[in-house]
Amino acid sequence: MKILVTGATGYIGGSVAHRLVSEGHAVRGLVRSPEKAGVLASRGITPVIGDLDKSDLLAEEAAQADAIVNAASTLHFEAAQALVTGARAGTRIVHTSGIGAYSNDEHGQLGDHPVLDDTSLPPVGPHLMQQKVREVENVFLGAASAGKHGIVLSNPLIYGVGLGMARHSVQIPMMARAAAEAGYVAILEPGTNVWSTAHIEDVVDLYILALAKAPAGSFYFVENGSSSFADIGKALAAKLDLGEPRFLPLGATAAIYGEMAARYLLGTSSRVRAKRAREDLGWSPKYRSAEDWIASDADF
């Protein structure tokens, strides 16, 4: 198939594009810079130089594709519209979203919010950015009314080494870098807040399954287990031989990671279950937990 991938230089999009190329698909990847275009080409991906603000370009590329993976932004409404409008009838479009839309600002605590599943589309959180994530999701979920085959995958905290140009995810590598500089792993106290997790290779497996057989208008959570930031921090500290983590108040944690990262990347909880992916698509993830990966395979 001819498959367009936005975010082809990123962690998720690049990993999916790598797998698609390895399976013999003709992959075109959106890229902003000529330098990165050359790297994509060396990886067997035809570069398309442009960005998400070029709606005409996105629509033209979508019209030529048999399938589309949108992995560049969870928030770019105009780009979503351009991809759906440009796509031919029956084109499969897998959109990358995230469970941050359901996160709760717990200030490092677990809280009492329920674990969500995807048997029905749950409401997102109250913040403006969470509402915008749903607005973009709805562009793809509603594409069936125009004969397009939109699918949404809502990703968790992802760990593991990427398969494309971008090798690292966000939270765990950020914590490892900060620990290397500070000499200890810093956790927003008490660290009992929990995020659902999945390994990047298991995530890519689900993208491939969704492209092959997910029904139009489908929404799937992506997860295989969950971890508290206290447990992630302890695993990192042991891996880096830094003793016990330090549990710090918000101000001290923000001084290390920045205010936004400390509060929202490391201080929230978001717990989901990928019920439909397992039952409907036969997704069978292999990796057990972020802590196991840190202990056995991670190389910081």
Describe this protein's structure.
This protein is an alpha/beta fold. It is built from twelve helices and 16 strands. Helix 2 links the parallel strand 2 and strand 3. The radius of gyration is 19 Å and the shape is globular. The model has no long low-confidence stretch (mean pLDDT 96).
Q: Mean pLDDT, rounded to whole units?
A: 96
DSSP strand count = 16
Low-confidence stretches: none
What percent of residues are in strands?
Answer: 15-25%
Measured as a percent range, the helix fraction is: 40-55%
> Within the largest sheet, what's the order of strands?
3-2-1-4-5-8-12
Tell me the number of helical segments per DSSP (H or I, 4 or more residues long).
12
The SS-based structural class is alpha/beta
Tell me the Rg in angstroms. 19 Å
Largest sheet: 7 strands, parallel
Silhouette: globular
Oligomer: single chain
